[in-house]
Amino acid sequence: MRNFSDLTEREILALAIAAEEEDSRIYTDIAEGLRDEYPSSAALFTDMSAEENEHRRYLIDLYREKFGEHIPLIRRQDVRGFIQRKPVWQTRPLGLNAVRDLAESMELEATTFYRRAADRSTDASIRKLLGDLAEAEVSHEHNAGRLSAEHLPRSERQIEDETARRAFLLRVVQPGLAGLMDGSVSTLAPLFAAAFATGNSWQTFLVGLAASVGAGISMGFAEALSDNGSLTGRGAPWLRGLICGLMTMLGGLGHTLPYLIPHFWTATVIAFIVVLVELAVISWIRWKYMETPPLSAAAQVGLGGALVFATGILIGSS
Question: Which of 78, 171, 197, 201 can pair with 235 through a Cys bridge, CB separation 3.0 to 4.6 Å?
């Protein structure tokens, strides 16, 4: 990689041309990724792509005037100091807030680049164009506001934000909540059955660990294989399975880890307190994201947890 300070004016212009082309294609990729679910935002990024293409044409015209027809391929990854971003095509599904943040960071980086390049340039016409492009990148935020007003009126933005919220619920909250509930509740019976049957912290820990990991693997595969998300809009199956599996494992490990404490009754009391915290968290998530009335959520989760907890104690004590 080269240092930016070592680049010649010819290399700086070549880098700027490649960067503008890349930014334009990134905005086009974002527009295509948003088109089905967020058509208004897709139109916004299409217009931003067109602006970047216009900048590229200005740069190419100046480069031809100064250095001829051949433009060497110099990319951001060839020069130190640029942000290395994950390609948009590897990021699915696209979230509105994520792509808006990406656009802001791209504009800030481009502004900084053009200002530094203009400061280093000794050619008046190159310095002028780079300075103008720096100002153009600064104005992109205002242009985005203009484009938002054109393509994203308040009603459209509210619709798209609600669509994004529903997608988040389907793709993250629901599989995570299902896993957390299963891990926190279903592992109670084997854990406390082992605890009261053996009276031994280490043996209880091993049972709880096996139950938690096994339940995480089982729930992860079950969620991933339930559907491929193409018709339900629930997103990538492997991602849902990963979220569900990890949350299931986490839910079981929460009240298993206290049994690393050698003193059995101390570990049991702490595990019981952790169970109460887990059930409270589940109730809060159901109220916050699933719009379940708080008392109803607490009663439903508490009743289920109490029944499984009592089952484990009765079996372990028999």
Answer: 171
Q: For residues 308 and 318, what is the distance between their CA atoms, to the nearest angstrom?
A: 16
Within 10 angstroms of residue 5's Cβ, the number of other Cβ atoms is 9
Q: What CA–CA distance (Å, rounded) separates 92 from 34?
A: 10
Specify the DSSP class assigned to residue 140: H
Averaged over 90-112, what is the pLDDT? 73
Percent of the chain with pLDDT over 90: 8
Are the beta carbons of 47 and 93 closer than 8 angstroms? no
Q: Are 244 and 176 in contact (CB under 8 A)?
A: yes
Statement to judge: residues 12 and 141 lie in one domain:
yes
pLDDT band at 149, cuts 50/70/90? Answer: low
pLDDT tens-digit series, residues 31-47: 888 887 778 788 888 88
3-state secondary structure of 262: coil
Note whether 201 and 273 are same-domain residues: yes
Say which amino acid occupies 212.
S
CATH of the domain at 117: 1.20.1260.10
41 or 148, which is more confident: 41
Distance CA 252, CA 215 (A): 8
Q: Hey, how many other C-beta atoms are within 10 angstroms of the C-beta on 123?
A: 13
Q: Rounded CA gap, 253 and 153, in Å? A: 47
Q: What whole-number distance in Å separates Cα of residue 258 and Cα of residue 254?
A: 8
Average pLDDT, the chain: 80
Residue 32's Cα: distance from chain center in Å?
19
User: Do 8 and 148 reside in the same domain of the chain?
Assistant: yes
Q: CA 230 to CA 220: how far, in whole Å? A: 18
Contact present, 243 and 216 (Cβ < 8 Å): no
What's this model's pTM, rounded to 2 decimal places? 0.49
Residue at which a domain ends, from 129, 152, 175: 152
Q: Closest Cα partner for 72 from 7, 8, 10?
A: 10
Question: Does the residue 161 lie in any domain?
Answer: no
